[in-house]
Predict the 3D structure of the following.
Amino acid sequence: MNAHEQFENIKELWNEFDENHTKFNDKGTKAAASRARKAIGEIKKLITEYRKASVEESKWYGAVAQLGERHTCTVDVASSSLVSSTWRYKMSFLLNMLSDDAKISSKRFIGFSSFIMLIASWIANTFFEFQVKDQIVECFMYITVVGLGVTAAEKFSKK
């Protein structure tokens, strides 16, 4: 359940609590007091779940913003769409691959971008009549090897 759904459940339970609390205070109905306590206990549980969902969504949207993309969607789409969860998984995979301690590593980003350009150059040379000069392909190869190699070496040297 996402944070918005949690919020809606909390609102419903709050209205139920408010109604039963008013019945107890105004009319002295003991059953209403019991229902009010039950609703407030459920609210307490939902608040913890809401906080976890909210923090997770904040991390997600912060990661997307850090990549320079703006991803807006309605709550209905975000909560029920298989596409959305697949998109989130792919973006979190990409972010984890490019980041180090929640910051995007410029070496990884440049190395990965160079790798993409190397693949694009290979595809252009192999399958299309567009010829990319060998010096350009070699530059992409060296940038990829150095960028990703240094990053990998740093990752292992920290341990």
